[in-house]
Design goal:
Blueprint: H1 2-41, E1 45-49, E2 55-58, H2 60-65, E3 93-96, E4 105-112, E5 118-124, H3 134-146, E6 148-154, E7 160-162, H4 164-169, H5 181-187, H6 193-206, E8 210-217, E9 223-234, E10 240-249, H7 251-265, H8 275-292, E11 295-304, H9 306-313, H10 315-332, E12 338-343, E13 346-354, H11 360-375, E14 379-381, E15 384-386, E16 389-397, H12 404-420, E17 425-428
Helix pairs in contact: 9-10, 10-11
Amino acid sequence: MLATSLAIIAALLIVSPTLLLLRRLRRAKQQLAQHQALLDARPEGLLLVSSDGHISVHNAAAARLLGHPAATLLGTPLQRWLPPAGEHAATPARQPIPADGRQPLLDVSRVPAAAHGHAVVLTRAPAVLDAPGEDAERFKRSQYFARIGTWDWSIDSDTLYWSEAIYGMFGFKLGEVTPSYALFCACVHPDDRERVRAGELRCIETGHNHDEEYRVVWPDGSIHWLRETGNVVKDANGQPIRMMGVVRDISEEKASVNQLEKMARHDPLTGLANRLLLEEFLTRALARARRNATRVALVFIDLNGFKQINDSYGHAVGDQVLVGTAQRLQQTLRESDMVARLGGDEFVVVIEGLPLGRSLHDEAQIIGEKILQRLAQPIDVGAASHQVGASLGIALYPEHGPSIDSLIHIADQAMYAAKRHGNNQYCLGMANPGEASPACPTQSV
């Protein structure tokens, strides 16, 4: 009985590892099948090549792209299916691959593999790039209408290739000039040349993608925007020998962006700065005043009698009065100053670079009287003339506060005080909390 039990135990000890090994083998086969299924699902061809140049793994797409969908490539020499790697083996290289008599083009990329000699990735190249006839013509037309062109520069020489679409991007007719790197540099806007050249050198040195936006000056003097992307092509020793890429006309995009930025910072009716641009300008003006020890004046302007014009003559006439007021304010000030419209009939003026030696009241008088005298003149709209008055509130940096908020608050209070004193009045804000009210002159302009 003991002998029988020992025999059974011995048998189990032999069978258990075998069963475990079989289960592991079955699991490994399942994983291999899953990996192969994933490989076969990829649209690009994938091959692993051993160090002796034979194919050890491939997917279905590789056999299909090589023109032998029913054949097994395992164990066969890679050179049987692909020509030997050329001088650009380390980068994607387009190679003609014979298959069913049509010689399609494949993009062939060779990369190192950890457990094999290297891996090969195959993708079908767009036939229109090299096809004659209608397909090539379609490709040229698509480049032209999409405003995209291809370029190829031999970095050790002046030799530069442009596709047909690029000539027009630089203001030339096809065949009017011979492309060269010197011509390209001459066409780039002088203010952008150094940056573009630095980007090219950075791409050559690091291999990182080249991506630059720059301006070009056409022969007629007009300025246009281009965006250029590309990268280097290296030889078998890993040395960069060429740069290739695409260039696109982005002039319309730039114009749209500039228009949107203008709309975001300007009043649509008068074209003056809005509150956002006013605060940006005032921030910079205060910083300059601190640095240069000068004074900044902030003037709030509210029109009097404007509502009656709107009610009597309509909003179209009222809008023209606002436009005329904006123009007069701009004509009154220097180009370095700013006029903004906050909405309705409220305007703001910023005057910077004022000397600190003059008294606050003298400064306010000079500013207030100059603006009121200009606004007192009637504004002609069509055959009618319209008279509007104004109330001005004036705050001065640094006396009325160090910040935008403090200056705006004081100028706003001074403007309402001017309104209480009558038409065409200006008031200087309180210089300190001890003053009872903003200082306003007794006479009107």
